[in-house]
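Per-record layout

source: Mycolicibacterium iranicum
name: Glucose-methanol-choline oxidoreductase
length: 549
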Amino acid sequence: MADVRFSARDATRTPWDVIVVGAGMGGGMLGRQLARAGRRVLFVEKGRSALPEADGTIRSAMPELAEPRAGRSPQAYFDALARAGRSTDEILDVSGRFPKRFIPFIGSGTGGSSALYGMVCERFFAQDFAPRQYFADPGDSTVPEAWPINYEQMAPWYTEAEQLLGVRGQADPLRPESASVQLPAAPPFSRDNQPLVDYLLGRGLHPYHLPMACDYTEGCVTCQAYLCGRSCKNDGGRNGVLPAVTEYGAALLADCRVVRLEADRRRVQKVICEHRGERVALAAKVVVLAAGALATPVLLLNSRSGEWPRGLANGSDWVGRNLMRHLLDWIEVWPQSDSRITAENKEIGLNDFYFFQGQKLGTVQSAGAMTTLAPMEMLTNNPGLQGKALRLLSPAVRPIYERFFSGGLILAAIMEDLPYLDNRVQPSDDPHSDGRQRLQLRYRLHPSEIGRRATFLRQLKEVLAPFRNLTLRTGENNTALGHVCGTCRFGTDPATSVLDAQNRAHEVDNLYVVDSSFFPSSTGLNPSLTVAANALRVASHLNEAHFAT
């Protein structure tokens, strides 16, 4: 196995073909393909390395559970988050009357958020690539008539991504195009999920086993929301960055935050980073941003200069705008009166309400037990005032929590939200000096989202009426940032998009973006497989356009 350790000094001395900023699903899969093709690839990742050689990594549990006392001090808490592959960024939400600060539950480190994800890797519907027609009243949304590419163009890349990620599952019976997708079978539904599957089938609905990027090794618990300790989880780190580094000669520079890009009118000249207190300038023929749909636009906006007064590649003034995050609502259901579900159960998919009465709503998935997804420790073991207060109240609150909120199966209702210019992410006005990145976010629900969400939840409640169920409304909560996208959208018109159809910045010849920033609509499905497939597509284009011999 190649040595994955790499110094900043080494990085400055190497003539790179490609610098990939971010080592998540998009960056990992693109970097793997380019390194495999013989390109000199450097991954620059602000988080820690979670590759097998990394010391001190927290696996097999969330840090709040693995190191509960870390929540007593901010320094220990943020250190534990970093070692668990979690972001320590701070977001200031200025959407409401009173600003609110929070730490988003997203990934940071090799694998990015895919190292924490529930492994659902599902193709978008063919209709998702022509979205606007499915919304009765999109209002002032910028949702386009069509993406600049269609399902048929993406299909071969979906197939390759599914193979590289080891995706297993059933075809969705409501999608004709999925009939030709031959995935290996996933394990049978668990006894926690089977009663609900039988009930849904009896209602004439169409549940299926979600396609999962999981090896299902013996004793696999799927490791949703934390790093896998047994190499069951297939993600951007394990299946992208690791083979790129250990098999194909790429390099990884972790603990290295890119603070700005220096560019002339046509090309990025330098990638300016901070690595363990040292300022580093790197250079490559091509720079690919894959830092996530929050950090990527902020990096471009922080790269202002005389040549780029509104931010790099921001002639349209659309960088950071059109932020989408899905409206995610949790519904806890007790399929049997004596349900005592404690295991993670990311199994059931249901798309009977994806297209409903002439417009789009979203998907429904089983997501595990409440005790797994939101344990008391998540609330109490943090250094904020809320955590301190709940630690004092825990002896009294815990019995109530365990009686009324545990034992049920969580269903996630994931509804498509539309893009709007006023929903956006920007650099913070108060960056501080402790090395943590700070962002400012503004996101509000518009009439389309409010109306469709009410319809979606009403339909689900009607289906689940025979069972005890509890709706945990999180869709309006901006701290639910699991599927952020859209902030550097691609399109054919430079006035209304940031990237072209090949994900290259319209105005910068050697700058590409391959994280979910490029989505012009969020769809109602998990984005991971589309991010991976598109990264493979862009890698093929880069090999032909920039490195053809």
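summary: The mean pLDDT is 90. The longest helix spans residues 385-404.
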